[in-house]
Amino acid sequence: MKNNKKEKRPSILNYLAKHKVAISFYIFLTIIAGLCDVFYAIIIAEVVDLITVQEFVKAIIFVSITIGINVFQRFCWYTINWIYFKYSNKIMSALNLDLAKQAFKLNSKTYNDHDTGTFVQRIVEDPARIVDALTTVVDTIMNIITATIIIFYIMTLNVWVSLCLIAIVIIGFIIEYYRVRIRRKNRAIVRKKNDQINSLTTEIVRSEKDIKSLGLEEKLSEVSKENYENYRNARYKMDMIDMNMWSARNFVISVGTLLVLIFGIVLMDMKMLSLAAFMIIYSNRGYLWNLIQGVGQITNSIVDIKVSHGRMFSLFDEEEFVTEHFGTKTIKKPVGKIEFKDVSYTFREYEYKSLPKRKMFKKPEKFKRERTLVSENKIFEDLSFIIEPNTTVAFVGKSGSGKSTILNLMSKMYEVDDGKVLIDGVNINDLNKETLRKTISLVNQFPYIFDMTIKENLLLAKGDASDEEINDAIQKASLAEFISTLPKGVDTKVGESGIKLSGGQKQRLAIARALLRNSNIIIFDESTSSLDNFAQEEVKKSIDGLKGKSTIIIVAHRLSTIKNVDKIFFLDNGEIVDEGTFDELFKRNKKFKAMFLAENI
């Protein structure tokens, strides 16, 4: 039975709550450090007042007090930084790990629907952004509080100065309000362009050999140039608008501050302001900058937090990022029988657009994106067939006939729209994850080989495998002869994506990995289509050696590789139009015969 229990969507607050004592102490020390600035400013103001009345001894005493305050403040900042470095890394690591775990839960269709940059940004970069932005918010709030107290203190010196300062603050805040609104919109656009760059860069790095062999450097340089220019233009637009708004705001503060000083001089001439009060206004005028800049900085950080929070935890949005769902049933002794019963499946492509910001940012957990159906393609309708245990079968047909889709439905990478896929009579939707994954192994056309040694790659399939089991899997996969030529044998590192191995060697290593899992069902998705004839023959030998020991399912591009299978299902436009042995289909099915002859001309 499918587990329909809806998981509560996480929030950054869940991660902060785990370290609430350390965070509370961080905030407390930040407040204390900020108050030190307030006391420092007030004491210096008192020193200025004492100097004007020539009470120098008292002035020296007050200055001495500020030394003690400064030492204490340094200690607070040292402790604050220590807490930040220790716990920000813990929070980021926890976020990275949980987001990666959530990514593991997503189904294959979800990965097909999104580019690589989408996941890299959300899992790796957004957690760092949000932690840094939260820290900035705490620090800036304290700076704002400090600046507000000191400005309020200055306002008590003269009512006319107070009115001038209030006017400057209001105008500065209005400019900041509009700057933040525009930045929020532009920031989302820049992030999207950045995602595209990450995806393109990843593809270029991974396909370096294909690019060179096909002479695509110039073409991809143009594509890269276009993407980088789009990102640069979006970033330039955001920065220029930001700069213009910042400049306007800074101009208001600069001119306003100078006008306050001029006004202060006039008030002194009118005997309405003392020299000491003027000096206090003059020496603390920078706090006006701190207040308005602080508000700008905190709004920037809040925008970053909201955008990053929404992007990170959108991975938990089941509508856009669909996860795999499993049942609770187990099969104690799987035999490997597979049955499709009236299976229907339609491939649907969606486009996602962000909702208006007032909705999108109302609450982080309410983050949603509008989904629009772009296209749909019905692959199967009421598809039925049976694969008996320990037999070797193949699915053939022209491109787009649904071969690979059958394998994805069979291994539950995709989920059926209607009907059932059964393993040993049990609906795969009712099986628990461990049973399903242990029962089925999948060898893709381009298997991913990790940047580890050969042995470590094999141990990924079975962590407690003995050397005897590893050697047996290597022998059955026809990999032993190649490994014997390597100076370090199974302890040889194969490089990122197995770059040091040939296509056939990668395939055979993937087969050995599948064999080590000892699955009852092994699926080969066009595993020899990209190999040369020699490598193809080696892989074919490996597959033939498994006959009768497991249920073997093959999607074949080259019909010559499946002559010895027990049964072939011939697909056309999402239907099984014929089935039988190779010889039977060759004799009675004109399309099948034509495909084989065309391949061997």
**Secondary structural class:** alpha/beta
What is the rounded distance between the termini? Answer: 51 Å
Briefly, what CATH class of the largest domain? Answer: Mainly Alpha
Could you tell me the CATH topology label of the largest domain: ABC transporter transmembrane region fold
User: Could you give a short account of the major beta sheet?
Assistant: 6 strands, mixed
How large is the count of helical segments?
A: 20
Unreliable segments of 5+ consecutive residues? 1-6, 355-367
Give a quick rundown of the structure.
The chain has 601 residues and is of the alpha/beta class.
Task: Describe this structure as you would to a colleague.
- This protein is α/β, with parallel strands linked by helices.
- It folds into 2 domains: 15-316, Up-down Bundle (ABC transporter transmembrane region fold), CATH 1.20.1560.10; 388-599, 3-Layer(aba) Sandwich (Rossmann fold), CATH 3.40.50.300.
- The chain is built from 20 helices and 10 strands.
- The chain has helices at residues 12-17, 20-52, 56-105, 108-113, 116-155, 159-206, 208-213, 217-269, 275-283, 286-313, 357-360, 403-410, 433-439, 454-459, 467-476, 480-484, 503-516, 533-544, 582-588, 590-599, and strands at residues 338-354, 369-387, 392-396, 418-423, 426-427, 440-443, 521-525, 551-555, 567-572, 575-580.
- A 6-stranded mixed beta sheet has the order 6-7-8-3-9-10, sandwiched between helices. It has a 4-stranded antiparallel beta sheet with strand order 2-1-4-5.
- α2 runs parallel beside α5 (116-155), α8 (217-269) runs antiparallel to α9 and α15 crosses α17 (503-516).
- The radius of gyration is 34 Å and the shape is elongated.
- Residues 1-6 and 355-367 have low confidence and may be disordered.
